[in-house]
Amino acid sequence: MAETLPIVGITMGDPAGNGPEITVKALSNSSLYQRCRPIVVGDAKMLEQAKHFVGHPEISINPVSSVSEAKFEAGTIDVYHMDLVSDVKAFKLGEVSAEGGNAAFQSVKKVIELAMAGEVDATVTNALNKEAMNLALTPKGMHFDGHTEIYATYTGTKKYAMMLAHHDFRVVHVSTHCSLREACDRVKKDRVLEVIELGNQACLDLGIEKPRIAVAGLNPHCGEHGLFGTEEQTEIGPAIEAARAEGIDAIGPCPPDSVFSEMNGGWYDMTVAMYHDQGHIPTKLLGFVYDREKQGWKAVEGVNVTLGLPIIRTSVDHGTGFALAGKGTSNELSLVNAIDYALRMASGRASKK
């Protein structure tokens, strides 16, 4: 019955980007309403505008002030309306602005509140622009690096990590948004062990009974026994041994130049990457497919998941698409993937309860 389907809160992202457009595209598929009850959090006026950009004028936008008012019917997009954009006609698409940054931030903050209150079963975020968001927040004495830090702050979470996924290709990161020099310094036994544990739990939440977790090395050839670096011996190896002592099937340290190909071949359920680009590059190489002949993106797939939270948060694995805003050509596959992952995690958590 529809009343038992999970409720998914979806943020609109930065209104100057393509978030509203890909949201309308994703929710125009009636089959989605057979699997969940979606509600967009943001500004209904931006969704009203976006439906014309993407060629779906028949879709009805239903502004609500509470989740209980939502219809959850195919052909209608329910929007938890926060009136975040003062004048839609004057608002400039494709440009960084404090108004757009504030709208994106307030949408995220509200969807977190709804999830923490149990009003939605999972949250899915469209992209925000970090510069725009901090233009709005800095005068208020606030700063966030991105979604992950916002979620950690407003859920009171201390131990968390970013996971990227392209179907069954999954990567979780020891560090993300910091310099490469600092990232090397963050490769410590306790943090590596923490991320292995978070990755293992995520696999269990996804219904994988006996996860196999590969752990990448930091240095070329995993340091060649100290010739090219010692982190594998002093930090990563000991973390793997500690994880195995907990009953986790952790494998490694594995050479970073081959471990992702091995996971793509089905050897592992997840790989622990030591820093941002080590994990992002192979995942996006698989998910982002450019058509040379048509000179356009054939697929932009992938999901960003924050692990360790008391609530479920998945996200698109791409930016705000400022250059594409208003054109109606943006690809919604990553958002659809994010919704699917959120539903899978919600089902896994519900079965445990």
From TrEMBL:
One of its GO terms (molecular function) is oxidoreductase activity. Keywords: Metal-binding, NAD, Oxidoreductase. The keyword Mitochondrion does not apply. It holds the Pfam family PdxA. It comes from the Bacteria. The keyword Glycoprotein does not apply. SUPFAM superfamilies: Isocitrate/Isopropylmalate dehydrogenase-like. InterPro entries: PdxA_fam. Belongs to the PdxA family. PdxA2 subfamily. This is 4-hydroxythreonine-4-phosphate dehydrogenase.
